[in-house]
Fold this protein.
Amino acid sequence: MRTKLWLHDEKGNVIFGMGRTKMLEAIEQCGSISAAAKELKMSYRAVWARIRATEERLGGKPLLIRSKGGASGGGATLTPFARDLIKQYRALRKGVLSQSDKLYKKLCEPLIDQ
């Protein structure tokens, strides 16, 4: 059984899910959007567009603290809100997966294993 979980707005637009989680975690690990995009095998533009869309769909709450480029290049780190969002999403996902496994064992496994 597979379960995918993402948060969306009233129009069905993705706000947050595992893809956004992985992007933010890559930015945190790599220290920049461009390095994270390379790590994820995505374009900078695609990563930035998704981050910006999520920020807009969250009412303008920033996910990144960006520093301008220069001789040493720019960078990005996560805001405390982004870290909390990742933490809460992962907890929600863990709970949903746990409950879906229990429901599967209760409702479907007896039928399939006959």
